[in-house]
Structure formats: C-alpha cells, structure tokens
Design goal:
- The chain is an alpha+beta fold and 126 residues long.
- The termini are far apart.
- Helix 2 packs across helix 3.
- 40% of the residues lie in helices and 28% in strands.
- Strand 3 and strand 4 form a beta hairpin.
C-alpha cells in the first residue's frame, strides 16, 4: 500500500511483519517517514478503503518476509450486505482493530502535544 494511492483493496496479513508509515513534512525541503503502527500476522490493513473512496492515508512497508491476502473492498461490502450475520462478525473484527489503533493514536497525540507544550514553555502558563 502506498500513501496517496487510490485503491479499495484491504489486506489480511497471513504471516510476517510490516510497519505502517506516513510522510511527515518538516519544512519545504525536509520530510520523514515515521512508523505509526506495527503490523503482525492476523492483522488487517487498508480497511479504511472499505468505508470511503479517499486516497490511502499511509503506506505499509515490510519488516520481514511475509504474505498477505488481498481482498477487494467493494466485493467485501457486497458480501457483508448479502450475509449480515457473518458480516456483523467481520465488521466487528475490523472495528476492533480500528479502535485499538485509534486508542494508540490518541495516546501518541497526547504525548506529542504535552511535549510541544513543555518544549515551548507553554505548560508554565496553564
């Protein structure tokens, strides 16, 4: 998966490890690609493509050799609509992963925000 790419495929990691990275612009001439999530066997990546038609929000790069199963997002949506009992379990699994990442992202954001307040002396005025 490549950040900015228009693609509706999601992936189930069959085995191996990968890292979700995003391009962070530091200034007009510098950028970095920090890792924002570690992906392991059994994880699903790219699932935002199931819910909207927007470009990829991040890239995924392999850390070890591995394999992933590609799943067509629109085909998955049709399957979920046609099989609501199974669809509920699949969506619950997808949402559980998203919630875990959202909680971790919130924690990282709080940490970075606190660091910025301290680094600029703003915390003394609060």
């Amino acid at each position: 998966m490549v950040e900015g790419q228009l693609d509706r495929t999601i992936y189930l990691v069959e085995h191996g490890a990968a890292r979700v990275v995003c391009d962070v612009l530091l200034d007009k001439d510098r950028h970095m690609r920090p890792g924002i999530w570690e992906v392991k066997t059994g994880d699903i990546v790219g699932e935002l493509a199931v819910f909207d038609d927007r470009p990829r929000a991040a890239s995924v790069v392999g850390v070890t050799d591995g394999e992933a199963i590609a799943i067509d997002g629109p085909a998955l949506c049709r399957f979920l609509d046609e099989h609501p009992d199974l669809g509920y379990r699949v969506l619950r699994e997808i949402l559980t992963g998203l919630v875990e990442r959202l909680r971790a992202s919130n924690q990282r954001l709080e940490t970075v925000f606190a660091w910025g307040l301290r680094a600029h002396g703003i915390d003394r005025h609060l």
